[in-house]
Automatic annotation (TrEMBL), chain A:
The chain crosses the membrane at residues 573-594, 631-651. Keywords: Membrane, Signal, Transmembrane, Transmembrane helix. InterPro entries: PIG-T. It holds the Pfam family Gpi16. It comes from the Eukaryota. Residues 1-30 form the signal peptide. This is GPI transamidase component PIG-T.
Automatic annotation (TrEMBL), chain B:
GO terms for cellular component: membrane. This is GPI-anchor transamidase. The active site is at H148, C190 (nucleophile). PANTHER family: GPI-ANCHOR TRANSAMIDASE (PTHR48067:SF1). GO terms for biological process: GPI anchor biosynthetic process. InterPro entries: GPI_transamidase, Peptidase_C13.
Length: 657, 451
């Protein structure tokens, strides 16, 4: 009995202690989770071999800040961005710096990477502001200046409204999530992109290029590539208006190609051959850090076909990282397979090899390499249409702009467009500066070469006519096209305007670049669903999460170069000098003619030299000796000089007073 | 002992005739580097500017104090065989573009208007800080310009030009607005001397690569890049700067003397009539570098403490707590002058004093009548202060070198005799037949004490 009495209190005490302890533990863990969620940074690198032998590298850095305090201290989130977002009331912003042209045919057009990272050359900026309408333009103006300072670029040239559009239709699908506010869009097609833009971009990363995936960014290798696009995307989302910052850098590099027997072999590549560096571990503050190698569906298909041919094995038994076609080293930690929805895995689908950088150190770096064993032909997933834009007409006075869409062969009815039914939906956005004067009534559409009335294919059309030096012409069309069509062309005629002499850039003879037009296909989804069933925790790659999200397809056209009539810049000078000479000649001779009286000179000569004063002096001097005359002359000179000096002194003094 | 020594120093300076002091030295350095030429064949102008950018950055001017204006993009130009590289020598040893270049004005932004706005500080309210010259009356500014010029003008991008009187008026406005303390203008263009012929604002020192009627030539062609990569004047300037570091005592006079008209193929011209300091006393780092005093304060940022969770040995924390650095606290701490921490300090100091006396006596006896010897013996150290315990040799050196420009360091205490040696300047000013000869030990001459 006594022992029981003793055990009960001790048990109670133990229980109490345990309770306290668990409460304490939960509090600590709760604190931890709060700290975790406040800011989160993750980094990823996706590498994809392209069918033309080049290699696509996509650097993806995602930064998350839950609350946006004005003076709040941030650990990993760049303060410059949070200040920008709070000061300019930005709901969403995207800025891209691009050099080169995305090859939609060979590098793909339908996947999320191509759709969101294929950007027009130069700078493109759009932003959604959460301010009243009358505040939008001043806010945009200040934003362009702030960004130009932040990213060492001339983005401030977008401050003037003559190059800025306020699109409505084209961003509808992009801003689907009930975002209200006003959008402004601007582009600088001529803007150079180089190291000075990368430098500030890297400074937004918590580890800069000192550790983690960004340490691969060797400047010469990047700018030696065929295409590079630097992108900053800021978005506020969720009920708490958390700020999500995505920084991406997309590069297409050409590994050194070895020719064997005149045949173009697929080049082997490794991180060291592409960037001259290896990956020595992750950025220490990164929540997750992954390197992904994506193999396209048709490549996987070819590999499996080749394995079938040679080994006659069962298709599912092909070892993706090491097979008869290529060999990938090191062996990946996980292999993810693209699926149509959560459990349905098709027969052939893209494959993602995943490497977690957590397992690599500087003394044991990751040098991802791909070694081809045999030549293999495959193609990337192209978009539904091949889009091009060009100028027609001849002469330096007028012409027309044409946008042509040609159906790609591989588009079949079973492709992504599930909701479109028999109709294909396309939205076209085109912004043209005021000095290219569009005649909107000449806008014609042709389907398969035959003119079609616009009202038959357009569901919505917004036209903002240009106003000289105030705003550009903006054309937005929402089209519904028959699914069986092969090609569509839209043409519009234009005249070329004249610029003032001081409106020409220093290299006006180069011509003027028109910003790229772009098209969106709201019904085509760019989504690659990779489900990682092994990684149940939230240490999953954030890039894969982004790929899993559905987005609509965007296609950019190239920029257009329009030569304008440029004046002879020395002309004003010539005109001024010539006019002045003529005027001077005219004025001088006229004045001469008016002033001169005929015969006056002779009269004056007759009247003798000298006037009354001289006569008076001569009278005064009469009857004086030579010495007296001399004295009078000298004193006269002195008197005059004295008067002069006094006058000048008095004047000076007066002035000084 | 320290204050006594500094008194001696002041006294000696007064005896020596006491050149009017210029007040306190500048507190910040700025550089405005302008390349005004566009197009690939003007590659060398970009390379000139970037070379200067690299030099001033190496000598300590931070990126936010450098305004770099490049009229075109050379590094990523389609014609450049070496993307993201700019070279100023055919040996290609140095990539001027580097990894961390920050260009503030580029392309079409490099205009006369923007340049004058930058100098005079008349910007639109929206212009970000990184594009402004945020100088004050204590700033020394280096202005480097290169491009194509002529008699009294410099072209901007083949589309506009700046006249010499515009430049002079801009400087005058800067002077009125107290936007600089001293301004060094360096111009590498044809007929560069004409560009600064009309300057009239005090405190401006101007130098140019060529006289009126002369051309400034490029130095050499790089067959790989395909264009000439550097101009002669800039090339020899860089050659001179190559061996200088932030602690260098080299003066402007030596730079000016280094230019050889035969090598330049033109005559370097400078004007110092608006400049008050003698050129042999103007350190190059006054303009091309940034020498700043760094003082650690404990008040603004809690570097040590429980809240930081940083491991700190207890005694060390205590020791640091007892040695505050902030000025207010320093003034409160009683200073006990004239007390040495150890007898070895006393011995070393006395020995040095004797040495100085012997040297002066010897030099006086050796020299003839009418020659004057001035010996300045100064110490930057307040012996016996005991606020700062140097961690190692480098620490002392670093701190010492930082502090010597701006008067006596407030908190360097001595533990080893060696530190006395490193912290004492002995300078001899000898006049022989009216010419000054200077010699000295110690890290750097004190500029405003020099005759």
């Amino acid at each position: 009995m006594a022992s029981k009495d003793q055990t009960l209190p001790s048990l109670l005490v133990t229980l109490l202690f345990l309770l306290l302890f668990s409460a304490l533990l939960s509090r600590i863990s709760g604190l931890e989770s709060v700290v975790d969620e406040k800011e989160k940074f993750s980094e990823d690198l996706l590498i994809r071999p392209l069918s033309d032998g080049k290699v696509l590298s996509h650097f993806y850095f995602k930064n998350y800040q839950r609350t946006l305090g004005s003076a709040a201290h941030t650990h990993v989130f760049p303060k410059a961005i949070s200040q920008l977002v709070s000061k300019f009331h930005i709901s969403e912003l995207e800025l891209s710096f691009t050099q080169g042209r995305w090859n939609y045919e060979h590098w793909g057009g339908l996947d999320p990477i191509a759709s969101s990272n294929a950007k027009p050359s130069g700078v493109e900026l759009w932003a959604l502001f959460d301010v009243p309408l009358n505040q939008v333009d001043p806010t945009w103006r200040n934003l362009t200046h702030a960004l130009s300072g932040l990213f060492c670029a001339s983005i401030n040239f977008l401050e003037s409204p003559e190059g800025v559009a306020s699109p409505n239709l084209i961003f509808e699908s992009r801003l689907k999530s009930g975002a209200d506010g006003f959008v402004r869009y601007g582009a600088l097609p001529r803007e150079a992109v180089c190291t000075e833009n990368l430098t500030p971009w890297l400074k937004l990363l918590p580890c800069r290029d000192k550790a983690g995936i960004a340490s691969l960014l060797d400047r010469p290798s990047i700018y030696n590539g065929h295409y590079h696009s630097l992108r900053v995307h800021v978005k506020r989302s969720g009920p708490e208006r958390a700020v999500v910052l995505e920084q991406t850098l997309t590069i297409v590099l050409q590994p050194t190609q070895i020719r064997e027997g005149g045949m173009k072999e697929l080049p082997h590549w490794s991180l060291t051959s592409l960037f001259g560096r290896q990956l020595g571990g992750k950025c220490p503050v990164a929540h997750s850090s992954h390197v992904l190698l994506e193999l396209e569906q048709s490549l996987v298909e070819s590999v499996k076909a080749s394995a079938d041919k040679t080994g006659g094995k069962v298709t599912s038994g092909v070892d993706i990282p090491d097979n008869s076609v290529f060999h990938v080293s090191p062996y990946p930690e996980a292999v993810l397979v693209e699926s149509l929805d959560s459990w349905d895995v098709p027969k052939f689908s893209s494959v993602m090899l995943e490497y977690d950088l957590e397992k690599y150190r500087s003394d044991q770096p990751l040098n991802l390499a791909m070694h081809w064993k045999q030549k293999m032909a495959w193609s990337s997933v192209r978009g539904p249409f091949r889009v091009s834009r060009f100028l027609t007409g001849s002469g330096n006075e007028k012409g027309s702009i044409a946008i042509e869409m040609k159906k790609n062969f591989n588009v079949s009815s079973e492709n992504g467009d599930s909701s479109g039914g028999d109709l294909l939906e396309v939205t076209v956005f085109q912004m043209v500066p005021w000095y290219v004067r569009l005649y909107m009534h000449t806008l014609t559409a042709r389907i398969d070469g035959n003119p079609v009335p616009l009202r038959d294919i357009t569901t919505q059309m917004l036209v903002t006519p240009a106003e000289d030096r105030l705003h550009p012409a903006v054309l937005e069309m929402h089209l519904k096209l028959p699914r069986n069509m092969v090609s569509l062309s839209l043409t519009v005629d234009f005249d070329k305007g004249f610029l003032h002499i001081d409106e020409h850039p220093p290299d006006a003879d180069h011509g003027f670049d028109l910003p790229a037009a772009f098209l969106s296909f709201p019904t085509s989804q760019t989504r690659r669903l990779y489900l990682n069933h092994q990684a149940a925790d939230n240490k999953d790659s954030s890039l894969i999460q982004t790929l899993n999200e559905a987005g609509s397809l965007y296609v950019y056209t190239t920029i257009l170069l329009v030569p304008l009539a440029t004046p002879d810049f020395s002309m004003p000078y010539n005109v001024i000098t010539f006019t002045c000479t003529v005027l001077a000649l005219y004025f001088g001779s006229l004045l001469n003619t008016l002033r001169r009286r005929i015969g006056e000179e002779e009269r004056l000569a007759k009247a003798g030299s000298g006037g009354k004063l001289k006569k008076a002096i001569a009278k005064f001097m009469e009857g004086k000796s030579e010495n007296q005359k001399k004295l009078i002359k000298v004193s006269g000179v002195i008197l005059v000089a004295a008067i002069g000096v006094t006058v000048s002194y008095v004047l000076e003094h007066f002035e000084a007073l | 002992m320290g204050p006594v020594l500094s008194h001696v120093m002041v006294l000696l300076a007064l005896i020596a005739g006491g050149h009017a002091t210029l007040g306190p030295a500048h507190t910040n350095n700025w550089a405005v580097l302008v390349c005004t030429s566009r197009y690939w064949f003007n590659y060398r102008h970009m390379a000139n500017t970037l070379s200067l950018y690299r030099t001033v950055k190496r000598l300590g001017i931070p990126d936010d104090h450098i305004i770099l204006m490049l009229a075109d993009d050379m590094a990523c130009n389609a014609r450049n065989k070496y993307p993201a590289h700019v070279f100023n020598n055919e040996d290609h040893r140095l990539n001027l573009y580097g990894d961390n270049v920050e260009v503030d004005y580029r392309g079409y932004e490099v205009t006369v208007e923007n340049f004058l706005r930058l100098l005079t500080g008349r910007h639109d309210a929206a212009v970000p800080r990184s594009k402004r010259l945020l100088t004050d009356e204590n700033s020394n500014i280096l202005l480097y310009m290169t491009g194509h010029g002529g008699d009294k003008f410099l072209k901007f991008q083949d589309a506009g030009d700046i006249q010499s009187n515009d430049l002079a008026d801009a400087f005058a406005q800067m002077y009125e607005k107290k936007r600089y303390r001293e301004l060094l203008v360096m111009v590498d263009t044809c007929q560069a001397a004409t560009l600064h012929s009309q300057l009239y604002s005090p405190g401006v020192f101007a130098m140019g690569s060529s006289l009126k009627g002369e051309n400034s030539y490029s130095h050499h062609l790089d067959p790989d890049v395909g264009v000439t990569v550097v101009d002669r004047f800039t090339y020899y300037t860089l050659q001179f700067f190559e061996n200088l570091d932030i602690f260098s005592n080299t003066t402007l006079q030596s730079l000016l003397r280094s230019y050889d008209p035969k090598l330049l193929d033109s005559h370097m011209h400078y004007r110092n009539d608006l400049f008050s300091r003698p050129l042999d006393k103007v350190l190059l780092t006054d303009f091309f570098g940034s020498v700043m005093e760094v003082e650690h304060t404990r008040t603004s940022y809690p570097m040590y403490g429980d809240d930081m969770g940083v491991y700190e040995p207890e005694e060390e924390v205590e020791a640091l707590k007892a040695s505050p650095f902030s000025e207010e606290e320093v003034s409160e701490v009683p200073i006990n002058p004239g007390k040495f921490q150890s007898t070895s300090d006393l011995q070393v100091t006395l020995g040095l004093l004797t040495l100085v006396i012997i040297v002066s006596v010897v030099s006086v006896t050796l020299l003839g009548k009418g020659d004057i010897v001035v010996v300045i013996f100064s110490s930057n150290v307040e012996i016996g202060g005991g606020y700062y315990s140097p961690k190692d040799e480098n620490d002392v050196q670093r701190r010492h070198k930082r502090s010597d420009l701006n008067g006596p360091a407030k908190s360097v205490a001595l533990q080893e005799p060696w530190h006395v040696l490193t912290n004492i300047n002995i300078q001899f000013y000898v006049v022989i037949e009216g010419r000054w000869l200077t010699s000295g030990t110690g890290p750097k001459a004190v500029p405003h004490l020099v005759p």
